[in-house]
Amino acid sequence: MDFVNQLQRKFIDYSSSLHREGIVDDQFTQLRKLEDENSPHFVMEVASLFFEDCEKLINNMAIALEQKQGVDFKQIDECIHQLKGSSSSIGAMRVKNACIAFRSFSDAQNREGCLRCLQQLSHEYSLLKNKLQTLFLLEQQIVAAGGSIPRVH
Amino acid sequence: MARNGGVAWMRTTEKIDGYDLSTSDTEEVHVLAVDDSLVDRKVIERLLRISSCKVTAVDSGRRALQYLGLDEEIQKKETNGFDGLKVDLIITDYCMPGMTGYELLKKVKESSAFREIPVVIMSSENVIARIDRCLEEGAEDFIVKPVKLSDVKRIIDYTTTELREGEQREGARARRRGINKRKQREGDDDLSSSPPSTLSSSTSSSPSSSIQSATAPLSPSTLDSPTRRLKMTSSE
């Protein structure tokens, strides 16, 4: 039981740090509230979908920015729009903010600016993914040890 | 409520056919959710399930119309045109490739079979002109993304209330018709301008339109919606 308590405490502390660092915002908490015994890993499942989405969109934008014959900024804008939407829905605040910054360079059709933004976006995404995977691992360890995931009130 | 032989027969039929001819309080609201984003679909689905709704989630306006049986290119052989369960509410994203949520809204409101279904629009952009356009076209409400549980609860609350009120009015009219056969009072005495209802069409949702929100109870939760407040004042 003591081991489970330790894990639960780690989970709570780590969760708090993610909020403090702005990695996730209130919407992430809102999604946590949707978890229960029937759907204990809902947030982890949505996050997995988000990671796939994000990787695909970042990849598409990288390819679009590489086009020698001319960058399709409309496509870039569409990708940013989608990513901004899904990051907002999951509460990935820093990724969302990176999208907002990216948009202004895409609107200005500034290729260099876009490349820098894409790099920043990739960085934020990697950070988010690593941190959330650490959190989800704790989640799984708690459940495997027979404990319950601390719920938000 | 006095139970006569007619109602008892209906009850037996319900048991035999498994058909729910009457809507009880425990019947869930069936929501058709439309969003091209997989992440958003997963979230809205969960929000709706937690709010005790049945959910059908599709990824485009086109698929939504197909589900309803409104797609011109796919002719429905069945006379009622329903692909599945009766839809009580449509909740759709605004920005979608192909058909936007606004275009879907228009198609639904232009259809005689489905115009009574309340349509709620979701959008990440909080643009007044966009909100106004949707409300003018008959949208029930407009939610700014990211969608929260309180948004969904509010919408389901007043959808359920309006459905129940619709059935109560249907039931009340049916009883009056049954008891007072000589009195031809088919003109409605309440605000809603529905045509004389037939008892067999119990599957139709309540005859509410976006302006006649006066029939919904003015609980604090319904007034919390800025768009509801907007509609209240504009209908005065």
From TrEMBL, chain A:
Domain remarks in the entry?
Histidine-containing phosphotransfer domain (HPt) contains an active histidine that mediates the phosphotransfer.
For this protein, the record's SUPFAM superfamilies field holds: Histidine-containing phosphotransfer domain, HPT domain
Listed GO biological process terms: cytokinin-activated signaling pathway; phosphorelay signal transduction system
Superkingdom, taxonomy of origin: Eukaryota
Query: What organism does the UniProt record list as the source?
Result: Gossypium hirsutum
The cross-references to PANTHER family, in alphabetical order and at most eight, read: HISTIDINE-CONTAINING PHOSPHOTRANSFER PROTEIN 5, PHOSPHORELAY INTERMEDIATE PROTEIN YPD1
Q: What is this protein called?
A: Histidine-containing phosphotransfer protein
Q: Where is the signal peptide?
A: none
Q: What does this protein do?
A: Functions as a two-component phosphorelay mediators between cytokinin sensor histidine kinases and response regulators (B-type ARRs). Plays an important role in propagating cytokinin signal transduction.
DNA-binding found in the keyword field: no
Q: Name one GO molecular function term.
A: histidine phosphotransfer kinase activity
Phosphohistidine modification, residue list = 81
TrEMBL record, chain B:
TM stretches of this protein: none
The annotated regions of Polar residues compositional bias extend over 211-225
4-aspartylphosphate PTM positions read 93
Biased composition regions of type Basic residues, renumbered to the chain? 174-184
Give all residue intervals belonging to the Response regulatory domain: 30-160
Q: Where is this region: Disordered?
A: 164-236
One family name in Pfam for this protein: Response_reg
SMART domains recorded:
REC
- According to the record, the signal peptide region is none
Superkingdom field: Eukaryota
Question: Which InterPro entries does this entry report, sorted A to Z?
Answer: ARR-like, CheY-like_superfamily, Sig_transdc_resp-reg_receiver
Output this protein's name. Response regulatory domain-containing protein
Lineage of the organism: Eukaryota, Viridiplantae, Streptophyta, Embryophyta, Tracheophyta
